[in-house]
Amino acid sequence: MGSELAESPQRQNMVEKGNPFIVGVLILGNIIILYLVLMLIVYIFECASCITSYTHRDFVVSNHRMVTKQMLTFYAAPTAQGRELTRMWDRIMMEQQCCGATGPLDWVNHTSTFRSFYPEGLAPWPFLCCKRDANFVILSPEGCRVGHVDYINTKGCFEHIENAVNSYTWGISWFGFAILMFTCPVMLLAMYHYTTL
Amino acid sequence: MQGYWLLLPLCWLGQLCVAQNLRPQIANPKLATNNPTLTTIALEKPFCVFDDSLSPGSSYMVYLYAMADSASTVSSAVTDNSSKPLNTTFQDTNGGQLGPYRVALFNVPNCGSPPLLADVVNMKKVSDVLKQYLFRVGDDVTCLYDPNFSGVCNPPLDEDTTYRFKYLLVDVVAGVVKDQTLWSDPMKTRRVKQTSTIDTWPGRRSGGMIVITSILSTLIFLLVVGFLASIFFFVMASRETSTETTHESQTTQQAVPTSQGSSEGVNQ
Fold first, then answer.
1. Tell me, what's the pLDDT at B9?
2. Which of B16-30, B124-138, B234-248 has the highest mean pLDDT?
3. Chain A within 8 Å of B236 (Cβ-Cβ)?
4. Contact, B111 vs B48, CB < 8 A?
5. From the CB of residue A187, how many other CB atoms can be counted at a distance below 10 Å?
6. Which of B14, B46, B173 is CA-nearest to residue B114?
């Protein structure tokens, strides 16, 4: 085990003196220790991201409040973030034929950025909530404004968002967890091998 | 429309079709689901309410008056001493807080051919049906600020306030009130919740999150401990081997004189 150290007499002399700096350099100069340090750093970051992704999934998926709050705060906001979110919600409302997070009453029961731009008499909810025909023309603006069930989508969009986020994050989180579980014994083996060198 | 269907048989029986016993009704919730809103209240128009008082000679209009519920104790008179309707406006009464104000006037609704609820499904007829059937108090957002506005202003109502309404049948030619309904039941506009008060805490952590966090934290702890232990053993082992090599060289050097000494001893 000590054969590599005994090779150069210079190193031998320095180790005799027990200089901690030299001991440290010798330790780092060994390639295996470098591998272990880097792997440990990567492992810790991977664990952190797996834990964080699952925790944030809880906020989004377990109930509708986070999604509702984000929608009310950013829909129709003129910032870059607001524009992104408006585009996303417009697409979801159009494709899924839904309105708001739990229904059109979301827009009516809470203050929102949307309300600051459009007065309630003109547009109590976004115009994408109105039912449209095959040519994407609103069936009846008055019916939509009044809230008649034949002219407005009453379904909420949160169910669709919840299903999508659930399915994506479930796969990613548990797959990452499986990889980490597999990597841990591999690293322990490498550490044991390092001590037997 | 429920109010309308209730009226019809009573009118035909000719007994209770007197406006003094009736009140303005809120629009059918099947038709207007978002009602009352923050600033508007939609009412049913008075179908077949005033028909007994209509005489064929002159023309009539229906006047709608609104008043905040808090003002009902102060003054709820809509006519002056000579039976003429009061000419109060929204601004005069401070939005209905000081007394009734005139919201609008429109033609007497046609009792003979009322709008059918089923017609709403037909896209072409829906806006007509809505216009004939309901009246929206608080619809006009611009008339307060428009200096050229000459008609009767119907500005938005206050939120979270209770209002009451009354219909008057006015003979346009003579300018007198022919008939009036009772004050309606109090109707309250909606109250809005602030978005910032929505609590986004998920409440209960899901089982998967607890499993992942606990297991991964344990594994990281094991790895860090293992890493430190392996470095510790490595350093210890390297220190031992370095001292062993120095001791070895000393013992080999010393071995020679002792063998010579022992051989000398043997010789002697």
1. 46
2. B124-138
3. no
4. yes
5. 19
6. B46
Contact residues for B51 (Cβ-Cβ < 8 A; gap 6+): B11, B17, B111
Contact B95, B138 (CB under 8 A): no
Model confidence, pTM: 0.70
Put simply, whether B223 touches A (Cβ < 8 Å) is: yes
Angle at CA of residue B115, ends B114 and B118, nearest 5°? 135
First to last CA, chain B: 139
Distance CA B5, CA A13 (A): 110
> How near does any CA of chain A get to the CA of B233, in Å?
6
Closest residue in A to B40 (Cα–Cα): A121
Task: Say yes or no for a CB contact (<8 Å) between A54 and B31.
Answer: no
Q: Which two tokens stand for residue B175?
A: 């300018």
Q: Do A140 and B238 touch (CB under 8 A)?
A: no
The residue with tokens 């049948």 is B169
d(CA A63, nearest CA chain B) in Å? 7
Comparing CB atoms, the residue among A23, A62, A181 nearest residue B202 is A62
pLDDT number for residue B132: 85
Coil/strand/helix, residue A60? helix
Instruction: Tell me what pLDDT residue A31 has.
Output: 79
B238–A15 C-beta distance less than 8 A:
yes
pLDDT tens digits for range A21-62: 766 766 656 778 888 889 999 999 999 999 998 888 888 888
Asked whether the beta carbons of B4 and B46 are under 8 A apart, the reply is no
d(CA A68, CA B151) in angstroms, rounded, equals 41
Compute the nearest-CA separation of A86 from chain B (Å). Answer: 17
ipTM, 2 dp: 0.73
A180 to chain B: which residues are within 8 Å by CB?
A: 216, 219
Collapsing DSSP to helix, strand or coil, B266 comes out as: helix
Tokens of A174: 């548990």
